[in-house]
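thought: fold this chain, then report.
action: predict
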Amino acid sequence: MADKPSRALAVFGDGLARFLDHSHSNLHALASLASCGFLSLPNAPPSESEEKRMIRELELLFDASDSDVSKNGGGCEGSSQKKSIPERFMGMRAALLTNNSVVQSLGSELGISLLRLDELMQMNHLGLPPVDFLASELLKRLGFQDGKIQDASEFDLLFVHIGVGDKVNGEKDRTASDEMKYIDALVGDILQKTQPGSEIGSRLHLSLLMSYGDVFEDDENSLSVLTSNCGKNSDLSVLFPRQSYTMMGEVQRNDIRHHSPMLAAQWQYGVTRKDKAETFSFKEFKEHGSNLVIPADRFIHEVAFKLWKAPKYGA
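observation:
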């Protein structure tokens, strides 16, 4: 536990996990420093559109899905109004950076400040390389500038959303490969600016999330988080205790999907534990990650705890 509240930066590659490969050296470098694991998701509704999938999974990351509204006191029965992030997390000042208008609408519902990535990039009057400028601007808004920690910051949490086809810096027809290169370069620049032992590194809580997006028939076998042959349909499963990610308190969660989770790596120098994962990949996280599996709707609580805005979730 740090002696001062952290400031958090989360980078989310929405639907991009399938495009990870050995060339993304900065993502693998982060995994080698970080605490790695999975964020579990529920099964998707039948015939769900890509837009609805994206919003549903983002709502889970912010613990704001419709099924959680009444649980969290976010409105009366029959109301779709969601309780805002500042209301739920002790005034936490959060901003969502995205070029996706639908994602921006969700951010507005949740009381999150909105920043468009392309508009932010247009502020680059110094002619710096785009990724270098963006990394510096993100850190500045979190109160980190010129390698120093400022007394005050504009935000406690910045959440960067990048999905397939998003346009950054005016570019058109961007592919998943382009997005992955961009995220890899951004993470690399942030790592360079927050090296272990630096003043910033001890106060910045960095999260990198990658989701698989739409799931395929083979995913249940190739991307399963179950750790034994005693799976959910096995007669032997009754002999094993239920995993914590399948529970909410003493109540079993319904409709848990045991495959195609989000990949999550979290790092803060001197605060997060370092596990034995060396690359950012499903196989490495399953075999060597220390965080195992937690529900996706607990992510915001884990981050808020590091910011001293929420009690600790889990052990």
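thought: worth noting. The domain at 7-227+240-306 is CATH 3.40.720.10 (Alkaline Phosphatase, subunit A).
final: tokens above.
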